[in-house]
Amino acid sequence: METRRNKKDDVVLIMTSEEHLKVMDAFKKLFDSIKDVDLTGLAFEDRKALAGLAEILDIPSRYRHEYMMLDRLRCDCEYYLHNGERNPKCLWAQDERKQIAEMRRLYDILPVKPEWLHSGDIDEYELEMCK
């Protein structure tokens, strides 16, 4: 695991998928162990932090459709470029520019970006497909 700072000077953790799963499991176990505890005695900031943790743990399930759709669009692009003979009918949107626009829209709304696709990958698909 490594840390970096982005342009906004936020600390960004870079970790493998295995490290990510271990961290998420640890958070889930922690949250499960305290979710039934009476929180009335906690300070407001502590209750807020626990609510934030619950929200973070629930992100993948709330955005499941968007992750799956984005991967489907990515697979369509791969097929279009390699085996689909650049036929737009192979694409979900049936148009190269619309396909890229939908990928960007989905990517932008995901709070946790997938490790299997980066914004630069979408740019590369656009360059290759919209020549």
Features:
single chain; 131 residues; mainly alpha; 2 domains; two-stranded antiparallel ribbon; 5 helices; 62% helix; elongated
Instruction: Give the tally of β-strands.
Output: 2
- N-to-C order of helices and strands: EEHHHHH
The radius of gyration is 19 Å
The neighbouring-strand order within the major sheet is 1-2
The tally of domains stands at 2
**Average of pLDDT:** 81
Structural class: mainly alpha
Largest sheet: 2 strands, antiparallel
Distance between the termini: 38 Å
Q: Can you give the helix content as a percent range? A: 55-70%
Number of helices: 5
Low-confidence spans: none
* Beta strand %: 5-15%
Shape: elongated
Written description of the protein model:
The protein has 5 helices and 2 strands. It has 131 residues and is mainly α. The protein has 2 domains: 61 residues, no CATH class; 66 residues, no CATH class. A two-stranded antiparallel ribbon has the order 1-2. It is elongated. The mean pLDDT is 81.
